[in-house]
## 1
Amino acid sequence: MKPVKLGLLGVGTVGASTALVLQNNAAEIARRAGRKIEIVMASRRSLAAGMPEGSGDIELTGDPFAVVDNPEVDIVIELIGGYEPARELVLRAIARGKHVVTANKALIALHGNEIFAAAQEQGVNVAFEAAVAGGIPIIKSIREGLAANHIEWLAGIINGTGNFILTEMRDRGRDFADVLAEAQALGYAEADPTFDVEGIDAAHKLCILSSLAFGIPLQFDAVYTEGIGAISTEDVVYANQLGYRIKHLGVARRGNGGIEMRVHPTLIPEKRLIANVDGVMNAVLVQADKLGPSLYYGAGAGADPTASAVIADIIDVARTITTDAQNRVPHLAFQPDQIVDIPILPITEITTAYYLRMSVDDRPGVMAEITRIMGDKDISIEAILQKEPASGVTRATIIMLTQRIREQQMVDAIEEITRLDVVHGEVHRIRVEALDGGA
Ligand code: HSE
């Protein structure tokens, strides 16, 4: 049987690894796919850099459109990243009747609805396993493995760079900028690392996971997004003392009133497996009505793990074009006419517990004033920790954990507490998720 021919767009960290793994594991891949798979043409910005040594006989061009237009190419592998020209290239490939494999979460989160509609019309596949959680086959697991279930919620550590930074800060007290530079050198970080630090990369991925879990259109703008920039070493230490770990989490939950989609730093009880996912590793915990909880863990970034997911998609497409040309598995897990527009809750309507840290005057009555405000707002306090001030210091730090409440109650309480003369500076707030079956 004729080999399946690939056109590769982008020979960066992931592109180079994809070319090498396809070559190095060629025999095993052909056994799995039922066909030989080979890259016939690749594009990269700097032609002088060439193709990585050992990646075979591949025609290299500086023009990505030449790859898409090459009639020999069956599958276009988009590893350029970013919105444009990736969107234009992918739509053009689809219009030419080619299948597409991409690792581009920004592209799928923002333009996936348009891309999938075009692919559906043309009867081609757009596969994007590598877009979420690097090498972990989370998309296949949700879309196929959990297809019998109602998914109730999912929560994931889905940005390797952010998790690497938080872990190094906690374990080695390393400086934020220094760890970020290392993550960039290791090929974990996005081309624009603010996407990692500000939670945008995680929001892209959560948007995709939410659509797969609940059968809703992709709507990146509806994801509430906070990054890790405001987390201090102090908070990490206090959280540990209370038996929690701080993780940057993406949470999607289906409730009676609508769907929560949010990305923010979160306290998680340290006994949870997911609280112990460190470094560049990712994990996604899925609560499904029939399976119950299941946890998917693995490398969330990096050249080879991401190439692993890219090539799994290539093999899937190769199998499909070998057997029949129809989409065997719908792009967003649900049949296109079953995608429903369930309302997305504003962040003020979500329900969660909170960790609070504030600096207050160390004198009688202060705690009573604060707890009165909490009581007035119907907020129940789960734990309070007050550190004894050093001698000669007149201010104390108070740490509180609340029970689960609506975010608006917390916003109102914080506003009132901040206005008290005895409270100094900002009231620091981090959401807490127990991540047990009922949460
Ligand atoms: N920058 C991303 C991360 C790469 O750190 O998780 C994988 O999507």
## 2
Amino acid sequence: MGILDGKRILVAGVTMESSIGFATARVAQEQGATVLISNFGRALGITRRIAGRLPTTPPVLELDVTDPDHLAGLADQVREHVDGLDGVVHSIAYGNPQTLLGGRFLEGPWEDVAQAVQVSAYSLKSLAVACRPLMGPGSSLVGLTFDATTAWPAYDWMGVAKAGLESTSRYLARDLGPEGIRCNLVAAGPLKTLAAKAIPGFEGLESAWKDRAPLGWDESDHTPTARAVVALLSDFFPATTGEIVHVDGGFHAMGL
Ligand code: NAP
């Protein structure tokens, strides 16, 4: 018996086995969910291959969150496999590592910033609206952030995009709450993934975490983050929305 028994969950943003979305899909299946995963573009072939490494091979949908046709067709794509969604996971972000990350904040060009905000923040709203016809009372949206309440070394414009994501989540909580749909985020500490490796200077964050997180921090262990996402998808947080749950070994609560 699992906490997602009978639930139908879409995990958007799975590329590699190292993706947080992959760990989330695995834990969701272990907890009894029927899972669908999605990705876009050239990496779709990789996603199809790694889907077979999950406990049950899930359907792989094509979804570029910036493509209006993909968003408009998403509900029909989902209905080919399940008749509704109890949960949607947004595990998506992109910012050009050459221009937006790694300490070049003052030079970040608007076109790249606009892309980062669209893919990493606005897309939570796009995904929510695309999935809205499939969801109902008790459904849950969960996204992933990197705590945007402070400025970090190297994170730069992605930090600004994450601040936008956090605000977007609160507005979705406001507008979808009356339909019984929750929206929450998990603020994970630094984890070794494709996206993280692309951030010049990311190792600095990892070593800060090792020094300061009272519970310690293993940047190769995605399971604590995945479990928190799954908990928020489940019926165990029925009255929680607009929330950000930190899964960071306690780093955020320490002064020094
Ligand atoms: P990841 O494996 O690279 O996942 C990011 C996903 O976003 C990839 O599947 C990527 O696809 C997808 N994506 C990018 N642009 C997209 C688009 N236009 N449409 C649809 N999908 C798109 O890295 P991750 O670290 O697991 O990231 C998942 C989430 O966790 C992100 O929101 C990230 O910011 C957040 N997070 C990560 C950390 C960390 O330390 N790793 C910490 C806190 C929060 P492609 O690979 O094909 O580009």
